[in-house]
Amino acid sequence: MNPSPDQAVVAAEALTKVYRRAAEDVRALDGVSLTVRRGEFVAIVGPSGAGKTTLLNLLGCMDAPSSGRLWLEGREVQQLNERGRTHLRRERLGFVFQHFGLVPTLTVAENVALPLVFARRTADGRVSRLLEKVGLSSRRNHRPHELSGGEMQRVAIARALVNEPALLLADEPTGNLDSVTGEAVIALLRQLNAEGLTVVVVTHNPALAGAAGRQLRLADGRLAG
Amino acid sequence: MNLVVFACRNLARRPWRTALAFVGLAAAIGTLAVLSALTAGYERELRKELDRSGVQLMLVPLGCPYDAAARVLKGRVLDASLPAEALAQVRRDPAVAAAAPLLLCAQVRTNEDRADLWVGIDESAPALKPWWRVQRGKAWFSSTNGVILGSEVATLEMRAPGDRLYCPGADATFTVDGVLDRSGTSDDSLFFVPLGRAQQLFGQPGRLTAIAIRLRDPALLAEAARRLQAIPGAQVVTTTEVMGVFQNLIGTVRALLSAVAIVAVTVGCLTVLNTLLAAVLERAAELALLRALGASRSQVVLALAVEALLLTSAAALAGLLGAAFGGAWIQDAVRQWIPLAPERLATPLSLPLIGQSILLGVGTGLVAVLYPAVCALRMAPAEATRTA
User: Is B6:A106 a contact under the CB 8 Å cutoff?
Assistant: First the structure.
């Protein structure tokens, strides 16, 4: 399977991930195949331990599969070396984490600009535009500990967008938020998707899963249904 | 924002830990700089003193010749003495341009916890002391009871030309004929009296402590030394050998001080390593997050290296500033352990020494960052989703 880059942002074929735990092999993912087309909003759901985060790590080039093949925008990830995978993460992927993952010593604006530092790019007003988009312009010089959970997650989303990624990957983005702030984050993700961004989220939140255009259910490391 | 700002913010995250590492390394580098400057200054000042004296040979009593020569040069007393005939023999030698006899006597003042050094000299002495300048009074003794004071003892005794000065050890009263300008040599702390009077007062009639000799031509040194060596009860020491004696004398002290400084720098390096390692372990999730956000391995290592280099370079600069401003105090503390230290130890930090200290700081940072960097490199980006 090698789908056209014009249509599929992500294509996975029989992805398997086996962890060695003590003397035992744990099969976290077992032959998962999927395709995410450009502009789609996909929610990966399933019980705890089903392999959702493992799948997200593989899609985000943060981990390597034990077997199987993965294409991102038509490029086969296994053909890339460490530098190539880092480049892909930096240039084409955006990440949002359940616990926000903000650097506590940096301001909101600096946190958003952090990926630009690694890409050796200047902000050129992009940070300001993104903060305006997520409604945090007035908080640009605040530190993370001065923000609410919802604000921190919006900062994390702005950071994920700063390098104009092809794919936004979010791991339980509402997992640490109350329902009201969770709704605001869902609305923001829907808005981004409506603007053309491809979004893949891992979630337990039915509201977020419901907001997605397609749901993939994982159980025991396999796609169900 | 850039990596330097990022590193500064990280250093400020644990201010006390950073401050302790900073102060420890700054103190170590500062101490090393001061001790290096002290050693260099010691040799430089010593050579200057020897060069200025124009003395190429020293005739001293039999015994340890180098110790004797070193003591005479620094105005210390000798247990043995030369016979007076030795002076005539020296002056008869065709290679000798000037020969200045000296008799040194220490007068202990137990109630003041100090010893005065009285030196008997004759008219030939000024020829071998080109730095002598009279600050006040006369350049030579007006009578056998005259005394010329070094600048420091004149201040200590609060005496001016024309004043009377009692010497308790000799039970004699002198008249101050002159006060010398400060020369930065041991002469500043000596009492000079006519040689004959000194021999009489201090119970050494006809005896000498040493004879300082200047040759007509330095090339004649070997043959002159061979002839003078034949004088009974005396031995010849060259100034080069004296220099060697001094260097040997301070060798042990210098080795000890260097060891202390090296231990201090090693401890400073370990403190920085500990600080960085603690920071890496504490920020494991954050470093994984940086990798997940697209930082390459080299960028993560660079971020840590910038942090380490900022800390250690700033510590090196602070150490140098401390050495520049507090060096004199450290030198005063240290010089009491250095035998026969020159009177003046002007030891400014030289450019090479400044360069070496900064390099030491940078090197310390690079060494200290190695292991934490290896730990950081082991962190997989996937850790970010578990802990970020």
Answer: yes
What is the reported pLDDT for B246? Answer: 63
Looking at chain B, which residue has its C-alpha nearest residue A102? Answer: B388
Domain residue ranges of chain B, discontinuous segments joined by +: 3-48+247-387, 63-232
- Say which DSSP state B163 is in: -
- CA A105, CA A203: separation in Å to the nearest integer? 29
**pLDDT band at residue A5, thresholds of 50, 70 and 90?**
very low
Residue A206: closest CA among A40, A49, A46, A32: A46
Residue B129 forms contact with A (CB below 8 Å): no
Give the mean pLDDT of B242-257. Answer: 68
The encoded tokens of residue B226 equal: 């061979």
* Minimum distance, in Å, between the CA of residue B282 and any CA atom of chain A: 13
Q: Are A41 and A73 in contact (CB under 8 A)?
A: no
Kindly report the nearest CA distance between residue A4 and chain B, in angstroms.
Answer: 25
Please tell me which of the candidates A63, A101, A106 has its beta carbon nearest to residue B388: A101
Burial track B209-245 (b if 16+ CB lie within 10 A, e otherwise): bbbbbbbeeeebbeebbebbeebeebbbbbbebbbeb
B292 touches chain A (CB under 8 A): yes
CB atoms within 10 A of CB A204: 14
Closest listed residue to residue B227, CA positions, set B241, B239, B240, B213: B213
Determine contact, residues B303/B3, Cβ cutoff 8 Å: yes
Complex ipTM, two decimals? 0.88
- Nearest Cα of chain B lies from the Cα of A187 at a distance, in angstroms, of 23
pLDDT digits (tens, 9 = 90+) for B282-338: 888 888 888 888 888 888 888 888 988 888 889 989 988 888 887 777 767 766 665
β-pairing, B190-194 vs A214-219, is: unpaired
Average pLDDT, stretch B119-125? Answer: 90
Tell me if A175 sits within 8 A of A208, measured CB to CB: no
Two tokens, residue A218: 């994982």
3-state secondary structure of A96: strand
Question: Taking a C-beta distance cutoff of 8 angstroms, is the pair B103, B170 a contact?
Answer: no
Report the DSSP beta bridge partners of residue B137: B178
Listed in sequence order, the residues at least 6 apart from B329 whose beta carbon sits closer than 8 Å to its beta carbon are none
Instruction: Note whether A118 contacts B297, CB cutoff 8 Å.
Output: no
Structure tokens at B129: 């002391």
Provide the H-helix boundaries in B113-230.
151-157, 195-201, 221-228
**Which residues of chain B neighbour A91 with C-beta distances below 8 Å?**
294
Rg of chain B in Å (alpha carbons) = 30
Answer whether B323's CB lies under 8 Å from B375's CB: no
Dihedral sign for Cα atoms in the order B311, B312, B316, B322: positive
Cβ of A53 within 8 Å of Cβ of B386? The answer is: yes
Contacts of A100 in chain B (CB under 8 A): 388
Distance CA B294, CA A123 (A): 16
B167 touches chain A (CB under 8 A): no
Q: How many A-B residue pairs are in contact by the CB < 8 A criterion?
A: 82
| CA-based torsion, A176, A165, A108, A194: positive or negative | negative
B298 touches chain A (CB under 8 A): no
Nearest of B190, B137, B185, B130 to residue B161 by alpha carbon: B137
